[in-house]
C-alpha cells in the first residue's frame, strides 16, 4: 500500500472473524516461527497479526479487532458455515 502512496498512520485495518487461540492447535514448529504467540500448542493468530501490523507502523488504535469468544470461526462455526440439507 505504501508503494501506492498510502501512509501507515492513515491506514485502518479490520481483523475479520477467524479461529481463536483456544481452537487453533498447532505443532511444535510454530514455537520457533511465532515465539510471541505460541503457547502450549496453541497459536494466537490475532495477536500475531496485530504484532506484524504494528511492526509496519500501523497505529494500534486504527486496528479493529473482533471478540473471538463470540466470533471464532471454529467454536462458533454455526455462525459462519451452512451445510445444505441433503
Ligand atoms: Zn475458538
Structure description:
With 86 residues, the chain is of the alpha+beta class. It has one domain. It has 4 helices and 4 strands; from the N terminus they run βαββαβαα. The chain has helices spanning 29-33, 45-55, 68-71, 77-80, and strands at residues 13-14, 38-39, 42-43, 63-64. The strands form 2 sheets. A two-stranded parallel ribbon has the order 1-4. A two-stranded antiparallel sheet has the order 2-3. A hairpin with a 2-residue loop joins strand 2 (38-39) and strand 3. The chain starts with 12 loop residues before the first strand and ends in a 6-residue tail after the last helix. The model has no long low-confidence stretch (mean pLDDT 94). Zinc ion is lined by residues 19-20, 22-23, 72, 74-75.
Strand order of the largest sheet: 1-4
Distance between the termini: 44 Å
Please, how many helices? Answer: 4
Poorly predicted runs of 5 or more residues = none
Order of helices and strands: EHEEHEHH
Structural shape: globular
Query: What is the alpha-carbon Rg in Å?
Result: 16 Å
Mean pLDDT: 94
Number of domains: 1
Annotation, overall tally of beta strands:
4
Biggest sheet architecture: 2 strands, parallel
